[in-house]
């Protein structure tokens, strides 16, 4: 990495290439998922795009890193205060901030450490039927990434044990822990929601449609937890539906948590997505899929699509300042670490850059207390669920301790995703929080509930035998863990757009929603990654070969 | 199971900008050549059915999409390659000298299980230019380098005239087939959301 000594503007400029041309419609800094999707979308809309990244790899805050690179990414050495290359009146320095704080690591790094790939956005999955999948297909990005199922399904931590979430008719039927009345109520509830979803889909298809089966608005406007109570679901079944299927973040029974209260309308949408995800791909089990080699593959897929559409890519190229027009009203370009100035109509930067505010009316919604998410990354020796590779675990609020107001989600991944060597598992945890203490305590408690730590060496001798007869009672051994806090900022618009951060959600829906909004700011009249934007020889009639179907 | 993956061979073409990577692909797959140079736009990969010793394979040839210009190919591009083709321009010494770093870049990024024996093929392109008079890299020099890197097969080609292109790609295909599949992590249950990606569709995937 270019850790140039801050010795008066004499950075090793010979290492940086010169970019030609020097003017683009759009310049994008950072190759996180939102930036990469925007690059693909802008290129597909016919814009000329320059896409740069200071790192030697793709993904920025959405990367999957080789294990040895994680510490320096989470706690970067302070960047040399951008060796102000004759900071003219027409340029303002661009600074980077670290999004990660309170990084705490335990255990020894397992070997061979390069075979572990670490997500920065975990725990995260895609719904088989969600927009991220559609975007991949529409853009042609699906050629560059393959997935596997979270085939072990979802487990709910309830009364000190892990309970397999019954998410289908069959699963409810087979469940041996539920009483008959509980089963009937749950059946009835799902049937009610399913017929609403069907009616809703029919109505959407035809404008006016069958209203029968649709839930009345008075139900849809209810807090979802109230609706579930009306349906007489037991507390355990409510927890299943709220936290393990509806993916609510905050305690829905809490009196003062109006903020995170899930409405029936929202919840039903998530359930609809969940159920349309099941069975979408014949060889997918369950609703969730995970990209082989980690989430960092997704930005790369979109960057490749952008490149195929003509976007120019330059890794290892930091930006040092933003260029401003005469009136200091607009950003009109960017100064690269090479000293070269690139002009553009639109600047887009990843959220690790601080956009200096100009004398212009600020369209940036400034939130006074940034949201945070506490994340954990663990390497463990066996699976939390026997005979399952990839599993989601949900700790509903209050399941770890009385004061716990947020749900904790855990995603366990196996070597079949090529993210770790055989015989090992990765586990990602996250929970939204407002302060470091609460967030990290929650994560730690969840880690303790799921795994055991072998603190001393004298236990090593037993490890062989325990891992072999890994019965239900034996918890996986925690080999290594890292817990940290990440700030969450929203995407903001202006003459320089800032893209959204990886949020606390399990999926990309909200990030892609903001990304779409940013795109409509840049290209108000263009369709966002239209269906026919999958790459083919479009520019040369003689070359109309069949590449994609 | 293994046979399913082996039906499809991923070949990637590396080399400096302007050495003729896209032209070679186009000549081989489409039997076409365009003198007009444009940094690659529009090509993701080309596919061609090949028959080798009575067996049918699909050769999937991946272009760099211009991302090689500033050495900005992502690790995902290199993954799962069965053969790596290194191309240089016999009239540009620099492009020959850069073959070594392209080879090393490939081995680092793709990290094949057996780097010593991973199949490369080297193509010295544009031998037609100026009737060979502007040539700066001799065949001998190129062959010596190939020999020093574990006897990499070497071909001199002209994408423009179609010279030796067919033979080169047949060699590429044969070498790709020989590449033993890595651990069976691709199989049997990867989900290809696009329905027709780098993997042959498994039975009953149409839904």
UniProtKB/TrEMBL annotation, chain A:
Q: Where is the composition biased (Acidic residues)?
A: 540-549
Entries under Gene3D superfamilies matching the protein: FAD/NAD(P)-binding domain (3.50.50.60), Guanine Nucleotide Dissociation Inhibitor, domain 1 (1.10.405.10), Guanine Nucleotide Dissociation Inhibitor, domain 2 (3.30.519.10)
Predominant place of localization: cytoplasm
**UniProt protein name:** Rab escort protein 1
Q: Kindly list the GO molecular function terms attached to this UniProt entry.
A: GDP-dissociation inhibitor activity; GTPase activator activity
What organism is recorded for this protein? Answer: Leersia perrieri
Q: Where is this protein localized, as stated in its record?
A: Cytoplasm
The similarity annotation says: Belongs to the Rab GDI family.
**Cellular component GO terms held in the UniProt record:** cytosol; nucleus; Rab-protein geranylgeranyltransferase complex
Query: What does it do?
Result: Substrate-binding subunit of the Rab geranylgeranyltransferase (GGTase) complex. Binds unprenylated Rab proteins.
Question: Where are the annotated segments for Disordered?
Answer: 530-549
Listed A to Z, the keywords are:
Cytoplasm, GTPase activation
Q: Single Gene Ontology BP term? A: vesicle-mediated transport
UniProtKB/TrEMBL annotation, chain B:
Q: Which family does it belong to?
A: Belongs to the small GTPase superfamily. Rab family.
What Gene Ontology molecular function terms does this protein carry?
GTP binding; GTPase activity
Report the membrane topology from the UniProt record: Lipid-anchor
Q: Which GO terms describe its cellular component?
A: endomembrane system; vacuolar membrane
Protein name, per record: Ras-related protein Rab7
* Statement: the UniProt record of this protein carries the keyword Cell inner membrane: no
One Gene Ontology term from the biological process aspect of the record? protein transport
**Which keywords fit this entry according to its UniProt record?**
GTP-binding, Lipoprotein, Membrane, Nucleotide-binding, Prenylation, Protein transport, Transport
Q: Specify the species.
A: Leersia perrieri
Q: Which superkingdom, per the lineage?
A: Eukaryota
Q: Could you tell me which SMART domains the record lists for this protein?
A: RAB (SM00175), RAN (SM00176), RAS (SM00173), RHO (SM00174)
**Pfam family membership, one:** Ras
What SUPFAM superfamilies does this protein map onto? P-loop containing nucleoside triphosphate hydrolases
The top of its lineage is: Eukaryota, Viridiplantae, Streptophyta, Embryophyta, Tracheophyta
User: Where is this chain's protein located in or outside the cell?
Assistant: Endomembrane system
């Amino acid at each position: 990495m270019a850790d140039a000594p801050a010795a008066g503007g004499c950075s090793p400029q010979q290492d940086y290439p010169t970019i030609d041309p020097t003017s683009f419609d759009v310049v994008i800094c950072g190759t996180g998922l939102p930036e990469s999707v925007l690059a693909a979308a802008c290129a597909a809309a016919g814009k000329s795009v320059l896409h740069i990244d200071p790192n030697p790899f793709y993904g920025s805050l959405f990367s999957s890193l080789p294990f040895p690179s994680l510490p320096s990414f989470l706690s970067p050495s302070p960047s040399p205060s951008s060796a102000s290359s004759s900071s003219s009146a027409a340029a303002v320095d661009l600074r980077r901030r670290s999004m990660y704080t309170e990084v705490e690591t335990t255990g020894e790094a397992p070997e061979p450490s390069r075979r572990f790939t670490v997500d920065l956005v975990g725990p995260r999955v895609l719904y088989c039927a969600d927009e991220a999948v559609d975007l991949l297909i529409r853009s042609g990005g699906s050629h560059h990434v393959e997935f596997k199922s979270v085939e072990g399904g979802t487990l709910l931590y309830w009364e000190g044990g892990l309970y397999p979430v019954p998410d289908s008719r069959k699963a409810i039927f087979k469940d041996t822990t539920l009483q008959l009345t509980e089963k009937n109520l749950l059946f009835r509830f799902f049937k009610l929601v399913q017929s609403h979803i069907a009616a809703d889909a029919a109505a959407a298809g035809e404008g006016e449609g069958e209203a029968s089966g649709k839930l009345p608005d008075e139900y849809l406007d209810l807090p979802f937890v109230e609706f579930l109570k009306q349906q007489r679901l037991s507390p355990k079944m409510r927890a299943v539906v709220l936290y393990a299927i509806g993916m609510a973040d905050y305690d829905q029974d809490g009196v003062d948590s109006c903020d995170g209260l899930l409405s029936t309308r929202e919840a039903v949408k998530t359930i609809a997505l969940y159920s349309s995800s099941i069975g979408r791909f014949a060889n997918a089990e369950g609703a969730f899929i995970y990209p082989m080699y980690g989430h960092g593959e997704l930005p790369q897929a979109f960057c490749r699509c952008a490149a195929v559409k003509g976007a120019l890519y330059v890794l290892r190229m930091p930006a040092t300042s933003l260029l401003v027009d005469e009136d200091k009203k607009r950003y009109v370009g960017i100064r690269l670490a090479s000293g070269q100035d690139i002009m553009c109509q639109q600047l887009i930067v990843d959220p690790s850059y601080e956009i200096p505010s100009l004398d212009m009316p600020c369209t940036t919604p400034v939130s006074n207390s940034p949201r945070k998410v506490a994340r954990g990354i663990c390497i463990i020796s066996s699976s939390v669920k026997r005979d399952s590779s990839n599993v989601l675990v949900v700790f509903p609020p209050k399941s770890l301790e009385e004061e716990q107001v947020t749900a904790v989600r855990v995603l366990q991944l196996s070597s079949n995703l090529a993210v770790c060597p055989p015989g090992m598992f990765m586990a990602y945890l996250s929970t939204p929080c407002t302060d470091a203490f609460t967030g990290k305590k929650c994560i730690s408690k969840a880690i303790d509930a799921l795994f055991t730590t072998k603190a001393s060496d004298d236990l090593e001798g037993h490890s062989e035998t325990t891992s072999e007869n890994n019965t239900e009672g034996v918890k996986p051994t925690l080999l290594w863990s890292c817990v940290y806090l990440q700030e969450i900022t929203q995407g903001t618009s202006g003459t320089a757009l800032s893209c959204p951060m990886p949020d606390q959600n399990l999926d990309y829906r909200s990030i892609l929603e903001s990304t779409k909004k940013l795109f409509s700011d840049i290209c108000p009249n263009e369709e966002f990654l239209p269906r026919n934007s999958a790459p083919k020889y479009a520019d040369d009639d003689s070359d109309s070969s069949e590449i994609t179907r | 199971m293994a046979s399913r993956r082996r039906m499809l061979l991923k070949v990637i073409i590396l080399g400096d900008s302007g050495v003729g990577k896209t032209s070679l692909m186009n000549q081989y797959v489409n039997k076409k050549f365009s003198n007009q140079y444009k940094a690659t736009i529009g090509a993701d990969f080309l596919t061609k059915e090949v028959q080798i010793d009575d067996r049918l394979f699909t050769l999937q040839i991946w272009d760099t999409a211009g991302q090689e210009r500033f050495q900005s190919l992502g690790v995902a591009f290199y993954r799962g390659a069965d053969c790596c083709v290194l191309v240089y321009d016999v009239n540009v010494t620099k492009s020959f000298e850069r073959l070594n770093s392209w080879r090393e870049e490939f081995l680092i990024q793709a990290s094949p299980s057996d780097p010593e024996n991973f199949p490369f093929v080297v193509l010295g392109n544009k031998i037609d230019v100026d009737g060979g008079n502007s040539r700066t890299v001799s065949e001998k020099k190129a062959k010596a380098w190939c020999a020093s890197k574990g006897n990499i097969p070497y071909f001199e080609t002209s994408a423009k005239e179609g010279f030796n292109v067919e033979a080169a790609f047949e060699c590429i295909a044969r070498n790709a087939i020989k590449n033993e599949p890595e651990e069976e992590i691709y199989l049997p249950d990867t989900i290809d959301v696009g329905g027709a990606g780098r993997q042959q569709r498994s039975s009953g995937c149409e839904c």
